[in-house]
Amino acid sequence: MLPSHAARLFDPLMVDEAVAAILSDAGYVQRMLAFEAALARAEAALGVIPAEAALAINQAVETLHAAELDELAGAIAAGTARTGTPVIPLVALLTARTEAQGQPFVHWGATTQDVMDTALVLQWRDIAALIGIGLDTLADALANLAGQHRDTPMVARTVMQHALPTTFGLKAAGWLTAVLRHGQRLDEIAPRTLCLQFGGAAGTLASLGDKGALVASRLADELALERAITPWHSARDRIGEIAAFCGLLCGTLGKMGGDVILMMQTEVQEAFEPAAAGRGGSSTMPHKRNPVLAAVMRGAGTAAPGLVATIMTAQMHDHERAAGSGHAEWRALPELLRLTSGALKAAITLAEGLDVRPERMRANLDQTGGLIMAEAVMMALGSTMGRLEAHHHVDAACKRALAAGTHLREAVLADGAIMAHLSPQAVEALFEPKAYLGSGGAFIDAALAAHASRKHGPDA
């Protein structure tokens, strides 16, 4: 996690508040303690430890208040610098707070990584639920944009240049369908990633004799987690899958933010982030309206791949327990989750309040003097002349229009070879952008149907 001073400065901008609380030191300690308490209950239920021991351990955990968790986290942090892991000082402090009958049985049969990995999974469960809600909210906002602007024409840009007419609704539908896929991915990875880690010192649970597998099963039930077929101390694909999901989601949100940043440019002005007091100002230029939400989204999309790469590289644990690979995950995954949450929060605010400027979109369509409709002319001409020859004639007309500073329509009407195949009325019709949107409307309708199906069921 970020140092506290950096967290105070940047978290309000870049991290969802609820996720920051889950990933806080106190939040992590709370979930490690939840593991220890659940382990004691599971073992007592199976006769591995005395029932009064489990009761004492659970009472010690349940009586901790939020302020005490912060204090406990500080003490554990000091111990971590000595022991190399937060679990050793955690167990010592929990043992000290537990009544005598429970003290010998704290952390019975478990190992450090059992506690840390399962605490991380418990954090991920709570964060995944928030991400799921956020994705649904974002999808609703994007569906509204796609439907409202189904027929709002604008410039489609390829390689940063004017290409053909499209609609803003189709752009929003593209964002929407990606968000819907992320919702599906989150559903799909839940059974694999919300899984208990419990294997003891070397993955055999030998310290629990012939009851190890039974304890593991009961512990999974206590924590409402999936049961692993085998312990996964050194099989890190689950962690990698969480990271990959976050990387993909940040990429989508970063692309969406990047589109809005470009549309906010002074020379473009097709859409703006929702206005708010003080948002997007400059410390020196009073006229500026800088992207803020979109920049957070773009920043997360830029930073996430490096964190994902760290986690993917850290998958290669040696034998049954690695030295150093886990340490790389400890900071990389929480930071990736933080960035993902902040980007999603920013995206929701942006999509729900996006200031779309249809009149500016239309003006930009006309900016090139009809050149954006060159393909439409070529395709109409090619139906009788052949595509290659039509391309040659329209290309020449484009060059003449640019050289003379005239509208492409005039260059086309003045070209006898072209006009031998097209009537003046046909030429006039070819320069209406709304007449050259292809299947854009059908694609939008399909995206909205997919959204309705996910939101209300397949019969919606």
Question: How would you characterize the overall build of this protein?
Answer:
The protein has 19 helices and 4 strands. With 460 residues, it is mainly alpha-helical. The chain has 3 domains: 1-10 and 17-110, Fumarase C, Chain B, domain 1 (Orthogonal Bundle), CATH 1.10.275.10; 112-195 and 232-359, Fumarase C, Chain A, domain 2, CATH 1.20.200; 371-430, Ribonucleotide Reductase Protein R1, domain 1 (Orthogonal Bundle), CATH 1.10.40.30. The strands form 2 sheets. Strands 1-2 form a two-stranded antiparallel ribbon. Strands 3-4 form a two-stranded antiparallel sheet. Helix 3 packs antiparallel against helix 4 (51-62) and helix 11 packs antiparallel against helix 12. The relative contact order is 0.11. The mean pLDDT is 94.
Write a concise synopsis of the structure shown.
The chain has helices spanning 4-14, 17-22, 25-45, 51-62, 66-83, 87-97, 112-148, 168-193, 212-223, 237-263, 293-313, 325-353, 358-365, 374-385, 387-404, 408-413, 416-419, 424-430, 440-456, and strands spanning 153-158, 161-167, 271-272, 355-356. By secondary structure, it is mostly helical. The strands form two sheets. Strands 1-2 form a two-stranded antiparallel ribbon. Strands 3-4 form a two-stranded antiparallel ribbon.
Q: How many extended strands?
A: 4
Work out the helicity level: 55-70%
Q: How many domains make up the coordinates? A: 3
- How are strands sequenced across the largest beta sheet? 1-2
Give the helix/strand class. mainly alpha
Mean pLDDT: 94
CATH class of the largest domain: Mainly Alpha
* Order of secondary-structure elements: HHHHHHHEEHHHEHHEHHHHHHH
Q: What is the name of the CATH superfamily of the largest domain?
A: Fumarase/aspartase (Central domain)
Q: Name the shape in a single word.
A: elongated
* Poorly predicted ranges: none
Ends apart, CA distance between termini: 43 Å
- CATH architectural label of the largest domain: Up-down Bundle
| Helix segment tally | 19
Radius of gyration: 29 Å
The biggest beta sheet reads: 2 strands, antiparallel
